[in-house]
Amino acid sequence: xxxxxxxxxxxxxxxxxxxxxxxxxxxxxxxxxxxxxxxxxxxxxxxxxxxxxxxxxxxxxxxxxxxxxxxxxxxxxxxxxxxxxxxxxxxxxxxxxxxxxxxxxxxxxxxxxxxxxxxxxxxxxxxxxxxxxxxxxxxxxxxxxxxxxxxxxxxxxxxxxxxxxxxxxxxxxxxxxxxxxxxxxxxxxxxxxxxxxxxxxxxxxxxxxxxxxxxxxxxxxxxxxxxxxxxxxxxxxxxxxxxxxxxxxxxxxxxxxxxxxxxxxxxxxxxxxxxxxxxxx
Amino acid sequence: xxxxxxxxxxxxxxxxxxxxxxxxxxxxxxxxxxxxxxxxxxxxxxxxxxxxxxxxxxxxxxxxxxxxxxxxxxxxxxxxxxxxxxxxxxxxxxxxxxxxxxxxxxxxxxxxxxxxxxxxxxxxxxxxxxxxxxxxxxxxxxxxxxxxxxxxxxxxxxxxxxxxxxxxxxxxxxxxxxxxxxxxxxxxxxxxxxxxxxxxxxxxxxxxxxxxxxxxxxxxxxxxxxxxxxxxxxxxxxxxxxxxxxxxxxxxxxxxxxxxxxxxxxxxxxxxxxxxxxxxxxxxxxxxxxxxxxxxxxxxxxxxxxxxxxxxxxxxxxxxxxxxxxxxxxxxxxxxxxxxxxxxxxxxxxxxxxxxxxxxxxxxxxxxxxxxxxxxxxxxxxxxx
Lengths: 281, 385
Fold this sequence. Notes:
The structure holds two protein chains of two kinds. Helix content of chain A is 46%, strand content 18%. Chain A is of the alpha+beta class. In chain A, α1 (6-13) crosses α2 (62-75), α2 (62-75) crosses α5 and α9 packs across α10. A three-stranded antiparallel sheet of chain A has the order 1-2-3. Chain A has helices at 6-13, 62-75, 80-84, 88-94, 103-121, 143-153, 158-165, 175-192, 204-225, 254-269; strands spanning 26-32, 37-45, 51-59, 134-136, 141-142, 228-236, 239-246, 275-278. In chain A, 38% of the residues are buried. Chain A has three domains: 1-124, Sufe protein. Chain: A; 130-193, BFD-like [2Fe-2S]-binding domain (Arc Repressor Mutant, subunit A, Orthogonal Bundle); 204-278, Fe-S cluster assembly (FSCA) (GMP Synthetase, Chain A, domain 3), CATH 3.30.300.130. Chain A has ten helices and eight strands. By secondary structure, chain B is of the alpha/beta class. Helix content of chain B is 41%, strand content 14%. Chain B has 14 helices and 13 strands. In chain B, α4 (44-58) runs parallel beside α9 (239-277), α5 (71-85) runs parallel beside α6 and α9 packs across α14 (359-378). The longest helix of chain B has 39 residues, at 239-277. The chains are: A alpha+beta, B alpha/beta. Chain A binds chain B through residues 1, 9, 12-13, 15, 18-19, 29, 33-34, 36-40, 56-62, 64-65, 101-102, 139, 162, 166, 169-170, and chain B through 301-303, 305-306, 309-310, 312-313, 322-325, 327-331, 342-343, 346, 378-382.
């Protein structure tokens, strides 16, 4: 038997939200009978744009049913923007973990959610389209999907990719292709990794110049996309004082924005010791 | 909670009489049968008695029985040993529905440069005899075909097959791990050269098996480094296991007819009951030439592992040909070779009974399984409303 957690067994034995929603706002269907598992997810949005109800139908093993059940519980109350950020690891973590060979069940959950959101955004017209070229023909897995799962889950072996996506688990002909994808992603990651720069002591002037440059080149363009802006007010030692403008000024998520969109790139590009504060010193 | 064990093709409960028979050889008589002292040497006659009991079940001569560690070793030793002992270099023939203990050594030989043919089966799992006839024309062969299939219970016509192979000058091995004890076997009338059997499939413990090696058949031993089993299988004898296997073979020989009749009746009741209470279900495999203890049933639109977990929660043990329950991603190679649609393969459940299965066991499963099927179908996206 598989080493399922109590939470997996609970969601398998007592699945939450089984069924389909009548007149749903989004429908996502992934998998097939041939693959051995399939999931149909439907959701309904409330007046505030949050998911008020989600239901599933699943053909699959105990962990596929548990992953589907967990997914419907997780997304209730989320906005579509939040739901779109749910990863397969989130689903696995919610269940207290899944056996390695069963991680593809969590990936199926994430794919169905994505398909349902796409379906909603296109006004109910889009069914899930397999983007890009098929890498594994046995299980219908695209190269793009493999890339994504490898990057998100930091996978490094063909066997892991098979556990997470099923790719390579049939005839095995695509195993070389999977190995190539892993190699390519590893190379890109290595290239993107921050180079080990000698710890140069920046003068205050150099530091402020680099902070301003990072804000102009990396941070402001991202905030502008959401109708926001940022202004550098002051720098005191390692503390950076900024003001969020535009849409960002009253945004509920401004603390998260400050950390993820402002502080993180400043630490990466200027100095890991920087702390960002909103407002005047 | 009650336990209903219907997974006897995976392993069987050691018969209490078998356990009794082996215990003295763990407690008091633990000597080495090869020793030159009474303490060890005295054990020898018990090993030889077990050899006679095992031979009697097959209609063999005791000298034709080699004790091994189990079915997998017997299969490997027979196939590799026969191929290596044959000259000129033979071809190898097997079927697509064999147990991995046969398929893998055959494929390994193919990788070593031997010609390998894997014959097919029809939609009922019956051997395509014409495939075999055609393959035999390619030259002298070592042929390995199973007596009974572990997943479906379907029997190959071994007498016919053995006749064909012998007429073509080949060596014939049969994996009879599932058949021994459940199907009458008499090697005096069936010209098999090698036959594998396993202890734990017929109510002996795990870790012991035997290979029937017909007198005059050449086999290069797999294990070397001792003189045991007349140099055919080196290694100090697993005396408790061998004694247990002998006892189990004796019990099987004495009880087979009555046990088979009872098991077949229970199996048929289970099968008929499930087919009538669960719509969209089907039996996989030929119902006319089948072991008396096995039925393989597919429940459409749902997946085997989920069925097994729900059954397990209720104390019922069975197995499935679905991909998820196999630990690999590929569903049963046996059902796929029969051309069973994926939909049916993923929802296939194998029930395998034993002489310990009772009427009450069958009644319990007939009560408990249909609601599980309904529950899972209620959440399946493939059920048409």
